[in-house]
Each structure stands twice: as structure tokens, then as C-alpha cells.
Design goal:
By secondary structure, the protein is an alpha+beta fold. It contains five helices and six strands; from the N terminus they run H-E-E-H-E-H-E-E-H-E-H. Strands 3, 4, 5 and 6 form a four-stranded mixed β-sheet that branches. A two-stranded antiparallel sheet has the order 1-2. A hairpin with a 3-residue loop joins strand 4 and strand 5. It is flat and about 70 Å long. Pfam families: Asp23.
Length: 162
């Protein structure tokens, strides 16, 4: 009989714990129903919040930016605001991964702190999810002279036929 008692107390403890977890208040899970938020929604919010921070030149790595620029040139194409952003969304929490390119001269540690702060504030305010972490990968540094090279490439080539 003593063997059965610990099993019962363990199961009642886990039942109590899960009952408390279900009873904890949340804006997304209420007695009237449950709200789920798609990963793409959280990724778009995080992407826009990251771009708002001064010193962020662009989001995404080289391949993602190349595909994004092609997509934008297609008639009717839209800007992908979640480019360079990965998220994991649960019922009450979210984790965010961001790939970005920093402007030259910006202190990267300060930039990362600013992006992290803005992403957490925006996602938590707009979704009600608790952001557990924001991981930031700085893939490149944008140099001002790169803009000059892009402008020179943008000039139309003279026509070869008349």
C-alpha cells in the first residue's frame, strides 16, 4: 500500500500543477475562447520593429535580400517585411531570430540591444505573447560607398539599336 500512495500524490501534484497552469490569466486564452497568432504575423511585427531602429540597413542574408529585390521588381510584388526573421510561436510565448545588416560606424552591441528592446516591446504590445528571447545575427556591415556603386549601376545602358 505504501507503494501506491506516492503514485497518487505524484499524480495529484501534476494535476494541481496543470490546473494552475490552465487557470493562469492570459489575454490569448480566456474562459470565452482562445486566440492563436500565426508565425507570419509575429515575424512581420518583429521585422518592422527591427527596421525602425536607426543603424539597421536591411534584414536578411545575401540570398534572402537578392530574392527580395527580385520580388519587389515584379509588378504587383510586395515587400516581404518578415525577410530575415524567424519565429517560434507557442500559446503564450514567442522566440525571435533576426538576421540583419548594420550601417557602418554603428556600435553593434548597442544596435543589437536597441533592436532587441524594440522587437520585444512591439511583439508583446501587439500580440500579448511573452517574448522569451530575441537572437540577432549581424551578417554584414553596409558601407556608404556601396550606395554610390549601386547608383552607378542603376543608370540605363545606352541602347545598342536605333
Amino acid at each position: 500500500m505504501s507503494e501506491k500512495s506516492p503514485e497518487r500524490s505524484t499524480s495529484s501534484t501534476s494535476t494541481t500543477t496543470s490546473a494552475q497552469g490552465a487557470a493562469s490569466p492570459s489575454a490569448l486564452v480566456t474562459s470565452q475562447g482562445r486566440t492563436s497568432i500565426a508565425d507570419s504575423v509575429v515575424a512581420k511585427i518583429a521585422g518592422l520593429a527591427a527596421k525602425e531602429v536607426t543603424g539597421v540597413h536591411a534584414l536578411g542574408g545575401g540570398a534572402a535580400r537578392a530574392i527580395g529585390s527580385i520580388r519587389e521588381r515584379i509588378p504587383g510584388g510586395r515587400t516581404n517585411h518578415s525577410q530575415g526573421v524567424g519565429v517560434e510561436v507557442g500559446e503564450r510565448e514567442a522566440a525571435v531570430d533576426i538576421d540583419l545588416i548594420a550601417e557602418y560606424g554603428v556600435a553593434i552591441a548597442d544596435l543589437a540591444a536597441g533592436v532587441r528592446r524594440n522587437v520585444i516591446a512591439s511583439v508583446e504590445r501587439m500580440t500579448g505573447l511573452k517574448v522569451t528571447e530575441v537572437n540577432i545575427d549581424v551578417n554584414d556591415v553596409h558601407l556608404p560607398q556601396e550606395d554610390d556603386a549601386d547608383d552607378a549601376d542603376a543608370e540605363p545602358a545606352p541602347s545598342r539599336v536605333q
